[in-house]
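Support request, please re-run this one:
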Amino acid sequence: MRRLPVYFLIDVSESMVGEPIEQVQEGIASIVTELKTDPYALETVWVSIIGFAGKSNVITPLQDIITFYPPKIPVGSGAIGNQLCFYLQMVFRLMMLKMKSINGMPITEKKQIWSLSLLVITQTTIC
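Re-run finished. Output below.
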């Protein structure tokens, strides 16, 4: 069966404290709930959450949608300011390192993987 990796790239900077991060968590929960009602998504979607602020950090490693449960996302771990492009580059590098293998098998040996999907969630203007 083909796999569709979906990465949520979440701004966890101090600007997201309070209502903004609560809205993000509600949005992710809503997306996951909707995906879990789709039999095709249950067989194909894999989800990961990566936070970024002063540095990038894998909050939830890539896992199938069936076993995925949206975590409480930690915030306030740094400021982004006008360097959002730089931080996104760091996140993309981390994500690509993680994508080199899925379930311990090099991605080149996986024959049925679709292109990945990225959802970037932030209050900051993107470059």
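Residues 75 and 94 are 19 Å apart (CA to CA). The longest strand covers residues 56-64.
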